[in-house]
Design goal:
The complex is a heterodimer of chains A (309) and B (259). Chain A is an alpha/beta fold and 309 residues long. Chain A is 33% helix and 28% strand. Chain A contains ten helices and 13 strands. In chain A, the strands form three sheets. Chain A has a six-stranded mixed sheet with strand order 5-6-7-3-8-9, with helices on both faces. Chain A has a four-stranded antiparallel sheet with strand order 11-12-10-13. The termini of chain A are far apart. Chain B is mostly helical and 259 residues long. The longest helix of chain B has 28 residues. Chain B is globular, with a radius of gyration of 19 Å. The chains are: A alpha/beta (309), B mainly alpha (259). At the A-B interface, helix 2 and strand 5 of A face helix 2 and helix 6 of B.
């Protein structure tokens, strides 16, 4: 349905301010501020344990933050949920057993004020063909799609998806994002969590990176990719030139491993050309794609150093 | 278009709660093991005992069969009420109640609906045992007496419905089965639904008279005997409802905080 997104008093679809959450000794979320404009498709990228799910739980009003505030279209998250403005696909929650998919979606629609017709939600999520199947007999990917149907049922202005494509194979994943595109074409706001950089880059207008409970980067997919998913050039470089490798274009930093030098790059093509030009004797060259997890940690470290300065 | 301001709030919430209660009741009736436990067991026990004690007098103007009919109906209903509520633990564990919190159904409506479900699923046990009493057991009552007794026993089940919710929020999937089983059988036996309390040792008789199950049986028997509504029974059952309700709210909040 192409409901026009009503303007919130403060104009934002989502406004998180200074969110903190502890679980015992674990400080899971440490001061998250995030502003999402209506119509944005935002990826929430981060490794496991970064605090994505906790932040999403607070955003949806499922968990109360220890500090900070959550506003969705200018109102309290619980009120926004009850008004049917938010649909969400939760991570790893099992579906109610002993019911068919159709019964479940219909039941869920009965608990909303202005739901989308259940048949339409099932069609958009691609579960019409399994509507008669019992929920406990579904494969992981099918269960995810049913969860997507449940998220669509309120006909929401904001859709929140926590790792939506986990348990989906490549084909299903593609179909899933195709139906997402259809859904967002009407100008709805989407926030999805993922730990796949590729997925974030492909489907989001904006990527927000969370690591160890802090936002460490915020930009377009391309921007994040250049910072986060840099490549590493490894080579044996003898002689005087080795000390100045860190100054080469495209190189972010260097590291020594025995005889080898590791060049962490944001643009490995430029860096390699420069390396060969300045040190023609460099040999045994290897180029490796950056490890996302390491890159995240690097981002955290960088952001801490910046904060300390 | 604002969907919030144009929608009259209260009536829709009420309708939503009723709809949710009905859907959940339908699901509860699909559980075969549950129906066997709560309907078949008390019914079989009643038929067995009714055969043994046919024609004997229990005093207070009650036949033994009528006495047993109230006891076995109460026994079955307690099982239905407690086990239904306890199933909340399963919904909680699989994360289904998190999904429910993303609907327009308010938290208190969820609790009310679950209590209504528990009350509704007691009806088969109540009706079938009474039916067996009227036919095979030969219990003869006026239509008004049947109705009064049935309603008295049914309303007396409210604290047990609340107890089921408490177990559902306090327990986990692993603990909830044994807890509800022990509570169900323990209360039934201790409350004199299997053997009359006056056959207990003295100290146990005192314990029995604190249980809600004893007063449920007492309520049913007194009304059946046409002696009016026993106020002590009503007071004790009401007190249990209040206490369990408070524990229920506490464990509900606690389980919500854990999510």
């Amino acid at each position: 349905m192409s409901t026009t997104t009503p303007q919130a008093p403060d104009g934002a679809a989502v406004r998180l301010t200074g969110l903190h959450k502890h679980f015992g000794d674990v400080h899971a979320v440490r001061g998250v501020d995030l502003l999402i404009a209506p119509g944005e498709v935002v990826a929430f990228l981060g490794p496991n344990g970064a605090g994505k799910s906790t932040t999403i739980d607070m955003l949806l009003g499922l968990t109360r933050p220890d500090a900070g505030t959550v506003r969705i279209f200018g109102s309290d998250p619980v009120a926004a949920v009850q008004a049917g403005r938010v649909g969400a696909m939760l991570q790893a929650g099992a579906l109610l057993p002993d019911v068919t998919v159709r019964e479940l979606v219909t039941m869920f629609a009965g608990l909303h004020r202005n739901p989308m017709p259940p048949a339409r939600a099932m069609e958009m999520a691609g579960v019409t063909d399994i509507a008669g199947r019992k929920t406990q007999k579904l494969s992981g990917g099918q269960a995810q799609r049913v969860r997507f149907a449940l998220a669509l049922v309120p006909d929401p202005d904001l859709l929140v998806l926590d790792e939506p494509t986990a348990a989906m194979d490549v084909e299903v994943r593609r179909a899933f994002w195709a139906s997402m595109r259809e859904f967002t074409a009407g100008g709805r706001t989407v926030l999805f969590a993922t730990h796949y950089l590729q997925e974030a880059d492909q489907f989001a207008d904006r990527v927000v990176v969370l690591a160890r409970g802090v936002l460490v980067a915020d930009g377009t997919g391309a921007q994040i990719k250049s910072t986060v998913a840099g490549r590493t050039i490894s080579a044996v470089v003898a002689g005087a030139g080795a000390d100045r490798l860190g100054d080469l274009p495209g190189v972010l930093g260097i590291e020594r491993q025995g005889a080898r030098t590791l060049l962490h790059c944001n643009d490995s093509d430029v860096a390699l050309r420069a390396l060969l030009a300045s040190c023609p004797q460099a040999h045994d060259i290897e180029i490796a794609a950056g490890n996302l997890e390491d890159a995240f940690l690097e981002l955290v470290a960088t952001s801490r150093q910046e904060a300390a300065r | 278009m604002s969907t919030v301001t144009t929608t009259p709030r209260a009536p829709r919430t009420g309708a939503m709660t009723a709809r949710y209660a009905l859907m959940s009741t339908r699901l509860a009736f699909r559980n075969v093991r549950f129906l066997v436990l709560t309907v078949a067991l008390p019914l079989l026990l009643f038929l067995l005992y009714a055969n043994l004690y046919q024609g004997q007098d229990a005093g207070d103007g009650l036949s033994v069969v009528a006495y047993l009919m109230v006891s076995m109906a109460s026994f079955g209903c307690i099982g239905a009420a407690i086990n239904t509520g306890a199933r909340i633990a399963i919904e909680r564990q699989v994360g289904w109640n998190r999904q429910l919190r993303l609907t327009a159904l308010p938290a208190h409506s969820y609790l009310v609906a679950k209590a209504v479900v528990s009350m509704l699923v007691t009806l088969p046990a109540l009706l079938l045992v009474f039916l067996a009493g009227a036919t095979i057991g030969g219990v003869q009552l006026s239509a008004a007496q049947w109705l009064e007794t049935g309603v008295a026993v049914w309303l007396g089940l409210i604290p047990f419905a609340v107890l089921g919710l408490v177990i559902g929020f306090a327990g986990t999937v692993d603990t909830v089965q044994p807890i509800s089983m022990i509570t169900y059988l323990g209360l039934s036996i201790l409350g004199g639904l299997w053997f009359p309390v006056d056959q207990f040792p003295t100290f146990l008789q005192d314990v029995a008279k604190v249980t809600p199950s004893y007063w449920l049986g007492e309520l049913g028997r007194t009304v059946l005997a046409g002696q009016g509504v026993p106020m002590t029974a009503v007071a004790v059952l009401a007190a249990w409802t209040v206490v369990l309700g408070l524990v229920g709210i506490w464990s509900y909040r606690r389980s919500g905080a854990k999510v």
